[in-house]
Every structure is written in C-alpha cells, then in structure tokens.
C-alpha cells in the first residue's frame, strides 16, 4: 500500500501555487486540494482553511505534513501577473493576457463564456493582499521549519525544475 504524501505550498497571491500544484499532481500521479478554491467557495459561509497560524497548527496536528514549499516572488512580478489575470468563474480556469491568453479575448477557450477579473487582482488591492499575506504567512512558515523548502524567482517555468528535482530525491522519491 502506498504511503500518503502531504505537502503544503505557500506563497502570496499570484505566486504560482496553483500551477505548481497541478504540475506536481500530474508529474507524480497525486491529487491536490486548493485552499484558495475552498476559501472562495467558503467565503459566503464564512469558512476557509488554513489561513492563520492556529488553523495551520490544527491542520498539522490532523495530518503530518511531509513537505512545505514556499514560493518567493518579487512584488513587481506579482503585480504584473495579477493585473493581467482573468478567470472563467464556473471552472476556475485562469488566463494571463501576457503569457497565457485565451484564443478569443475575454472568452473561455472551452465554453466561450465571458472571463472576469477579480477586484482583488487589480493593482490597488494587491498591496493590501500582500501585507495581509506577510502578516499571516510568517508564523505559518516558522511552524514549517525542518520540512520547509523555499524557491525564489520570477517565472514558474524556472522554479518548477528545482521543485521537480527535490520531489524526485529521497525521502520523497519512494512512497512505499
């Protein structure tokens, strides 16, 4: 029976957490859960997990994590990514007008439905979101000492090979 592999990926809004999670899942045959997706779905019900140190401690007590990946992306890169980010609300598909635009501007590639831009992806809201992330993330990152691996850069495609290499080395390589 294969061992469960539990990891968390931390990073500010627009850092590439979803892209990295999808690549890990595809490359290693794993499933992933996006707390951001759960948070957006849970906002009307006032839920969303984990977003604070207390919530991270509860998660860590329930499920012993094997690895925590922290993505460190410069502010200017985040600002550029988020201001160009458009989303298909029904599916969560993300487009970026600079490097991953839809085939037809403003329309989802699969359904043809309109894309939206979240108000909190606009530059005015970004500073507030980054300040909030830094306040909340520091104690969560401190909790992850010993299993924390940080990756810095401006492009997910340049960060990914290092994460992929890490996950292909023991103790992550063998899941028996």
Q: How much of the sequence is in beta strands? A: 5-15%
Helix content: 40-55%
CATH architecture name: 3-Layer(aba) Sandwich
In CATH, the homologous superfamily goes by the name P-loop containing nucleotide triphosphate hydrolases
The largest beta-sheet arranges its strands as 1-2-5
DSSP summary: helix tally: 6
> Rg from C-alpha positions?
17 Å
Say what the CATH topology is.
Rossmann fold
CATH level 1 name: Alpha Beta
Low-confidence stretches: 42-47
As for the number of domains, it is 1
Terminal-residue CA separation: 7 Å
Largest sheet: 3 strands, parallel
**How many beta-strand elements?**
5
What does this protein look like?
The protein has 176 residues and is of the alpha/beta class. The chain is built from six helices and five strands, in the order βαααβαββαβα. The strands form two sheets. A three-stranded parallel beta sheet has the order 1-2-5, with helices on one face. Strands 3-4 form a two-stranded antiparallel ribbon. The protein is 41% helix and 12% strand. The chain is globular, with a radius of gyration of 17 Å. It has a single domain, classed as P-loop containing nucleotide triphosphate hydrolases (Rossmann fold, 3-Layer(aba) Sandwich). The termini are close together. InterPro entries: Adenylat/UMP-CMP_kin, Adenylate_kinase_lid-dom, P-loop_NTPase. This is Adenylate kinase 3. GO terms for molecular function: AMP kinase activity; ATP binding.
């Amino acid at each position: 029976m294969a061992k469960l592999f539990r990891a968390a990926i931390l990073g500010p809004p627009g850092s590439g957490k979803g892209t990295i999670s999808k690549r890990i899942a595809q490359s290693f045959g794993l499933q992933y859960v996006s707390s951001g997706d759960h948070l957006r779905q849970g906002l009307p019900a006032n839920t969303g997990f984990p977003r604070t140190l207390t919530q991270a401690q509860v998660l860590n007590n329930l499920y012993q994590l094997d690895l925590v990946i922290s993505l460190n992306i410069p502010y200017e890169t985040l600002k550029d990514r988020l201001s160009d980010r458009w989303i298909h609300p029904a599916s969560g598909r993300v487009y970026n007008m600079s490097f991953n635009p839809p085939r037809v501007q403003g329309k989802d590639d699969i359904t043809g439905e309109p894309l939206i831009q979240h108000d909190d992806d606009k530059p005015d809201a970004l500073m507030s979101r980054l300040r909030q992330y830094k306040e909340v993330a520091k104690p969560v990152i401190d909790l992850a000492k010993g299993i924390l691996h940080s990756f810095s850069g401006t492009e997910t495609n340049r960060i990914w090979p290092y994460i992929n290499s890490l996950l292909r080395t023991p103790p992550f390589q063998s899941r028996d």
